[in-house]
């Protein structure tokens, strides 16, 4: 049986008052937050297994919006139940079969169309966390409309085609992530050096576990705080460089 990969307790969390609002885009619901001024730059945020309503991911959407982007987190689970911290880990593999992070192309297209036609976005990047990090890795191999990507602790492992990134991509990892070993990070680095024709970056944050980068400030432990803040700044810097 697989160990619980999320070392933070998702049950006992501070409440979070969101700054954005929910919208319906074709068959998808989405949470969207924009900056206080008009912009033609947008960032799609891909949630983790806890889904689009999880407070941590909404915090990230609002955080990106504060940096001057239209930020949007669609429900990539299309109305089906997200994983819950009370669910049994023995069922996780089955749950994942119905929630494949490499089957997100249609949803990405729906959201890209909405951002371009309804929000006036001309430059669009993407960031994702865990499940969403895998989705970002996949989309950066497939969708040239996404001009930059940031994948937080999520990689596609089982395909030789996974290194021909179309646009600049930044991979963020925690040193103590027991779902992604440092061997896998090293392999990714070697293969990207070999095959990747665009700019990429890989960074490992000391002492950090899976899921570290989306914690809200009031949920951070003092020792982790500098690394979480650094990862956030690095994410925004990468997006600002290209989007």
Automatic annotation (TrEMBL):
Pfam families: DLH
Occurrences of domain Dienelactone hydrolase (ranges): 29-241
Protein name: Carboxymethylenebutenolidase homolog
Subcellular location(s) of the protein: Cytoplasm, Cytosol
Transmembrane feature ranges: none
MF terms (GO), sorted A to Z: hydrolase activity
Family: Belongs to the dienelactone hydrolase family.
């Amino acid at each position: 049986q697989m160990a619980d990969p999320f070392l933070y307790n998702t049950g006992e969390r501070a409440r979070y008052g969101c700054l954005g609002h929910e919208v319906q885009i074709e068959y998808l619901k989405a949470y969207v937050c924009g900056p206080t001024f008009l912009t033609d730059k947008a960032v799609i945020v891909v949630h983790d297994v806890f889904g689009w309503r999880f407070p941590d991911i909404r915090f990230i959407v609002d955080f990106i919006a504060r940096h001057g982007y239209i930020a949007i987190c669609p429900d990539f689970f299309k109305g089906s139940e997200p994983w819950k911290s009370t669910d049994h880990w023995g069922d996780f593999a089955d749950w994942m079969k119905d929630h494949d992070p490499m089957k997100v192309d249609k949803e990405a297209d729906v959201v890209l169309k909405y951002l371009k036609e309804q929000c006036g976005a001309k430059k669009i990047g993407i960031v994702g966390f865990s499940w969403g990090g895998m989705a970002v890795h996949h989309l950066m191999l497939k969708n040239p409309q996404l001009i930059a990507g940031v994948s937080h602790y999520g990689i596609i492992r089982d395909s030789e085609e996974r290194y021909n990134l179309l646009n600049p991509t930044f991979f963020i990892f925690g040193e103590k992530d027991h779902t992604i070993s440092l061997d896998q990070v090293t392999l990714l680095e070697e293969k990207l050096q070999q095959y990747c024709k665009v700019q990429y970056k890989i960074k490992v944050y000391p002492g950090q576990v899976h899921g570290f980068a989306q914690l809200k400030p009031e949920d951070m432990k003092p020792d982790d705080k500098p690394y979480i803040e650094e990862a956030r700044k690095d994410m925004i810097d990468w997006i600002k460089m290209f989007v």
